[in-house]
Structure to design on (300 residues):
């Protein structure tokens, strides 16, 4: 795992319920296997654990996509591919996946949670905990922010998973009442990096709009047809709270729509956790932004 990728941990940095406890793999009856195959050279198989009152997957070797469809009576035709974070070592499947999808459904938006393939971690929980501790220690010592282009260069399997997700949704758009031209993507931490990588290097994926939630905001070129982008970050984020917002400047320079919410407090990994900080309002802000762009009403 590259040093830059190690910075993309999603685990919320607060102490409550922080013990990692192994759990059986939850039933996922609606998860659909994507056609990207099994991760090569990956002997450790998928396992799950609970932490912070939520659940996490790791050692994902086969990608899946889980549809969450709104009540047809309120469906807008818009859809969002939801990409949880976890440093490409684990996935915050509940806080940054299922809970986000359900909240989008309440707004009439179809959501599809992408369980993408991950870098291998030790199979045993003690070894995994030690590896995560080392990762956070490295992040805390880092003085330079990782180069975004360098990070994305190592994401070929994950980009393939994202491309397959968009292809699957478009192939079943009529069945799922989705407009194939109104599919966006929102990602958290490492998932935000995957969202940006898909936007820039995903070839045929072409998200209609994107959400970058506490991901790195290093400068990177904005395509001439860059999709509208929503960004949310806490100023006290220990990983990405540095005043380097080149990504925002790139979108503005390209004269592409961008909205940036810098919350005073919230730390990293707040997702859908209820907190006393105003960062908890990011989802309402995101969906109001979607509404401003016409995605909370049927296309006319």
């Amino acid at each position: 795992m590259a040093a830059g990728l190690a910075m993309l941990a999603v685990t919320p940095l607060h102490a409550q319920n922080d013990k990692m406890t192994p759990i059986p793999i939850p039933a996922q009856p609606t998860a659909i296997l994507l056609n990207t195959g099994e991760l090569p050279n990956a002997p450790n198989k998928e396992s799950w654990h609970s932490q912070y009152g939520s659940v996490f997957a790791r050692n994902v070797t086969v990608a899946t996509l889980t549809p969450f469809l709104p009540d047809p009576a309120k469906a807008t035709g818009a859809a969002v591919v939801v990409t949880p974070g976890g440093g490409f070592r684990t996935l915050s499947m509940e806080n940054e996946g299922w809970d986000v999808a359900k909240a989008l459904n309440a707004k009439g938006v179809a959501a599809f949670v992408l369980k993408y393939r991950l870098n291998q971690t030790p199979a045993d929980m003690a070894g995994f905990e030690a590896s995560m501790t080392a990762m956070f220690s490295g992040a805390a010592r880092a003085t330079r922010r990782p180069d975004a282009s360098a990070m994305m260069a190592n994401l070929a399997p994950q980009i393939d998973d994202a491309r397959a997700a968009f292809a699957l949704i478009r192939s079943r758009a009529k069945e799922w009442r989705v407009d194939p031209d109104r599919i966006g993507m929102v990602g958290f931490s490492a998932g935000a990096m995957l969202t940006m990588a898909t936007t820039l290097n995903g070839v045929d994926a072409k998200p209609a709009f994107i959400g970058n939630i506490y991901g790195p905001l290093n400068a990177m070129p904005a395509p001439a047809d860059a999709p509208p982008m929503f960004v949310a970050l806490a100023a006290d984020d220990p990983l990405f709270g540095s005043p380097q917002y080149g990504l925002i400047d790139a979108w503005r320079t390209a004269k592409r729509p961008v909205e940036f919410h810098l919350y005073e407090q919230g730390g990293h990994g707040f997702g859908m956790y209820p907190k006393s900080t105003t960062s908890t309002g990011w989802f309402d802000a995101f969906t109001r932004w979607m509404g401003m762009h016409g995605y909370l009403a049927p296309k006319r």
About this structure: The mean pLDDT is 91. The two ends are 46 Å apart (CA to CA). Residues 125-141 form the longest helix (17 residues).
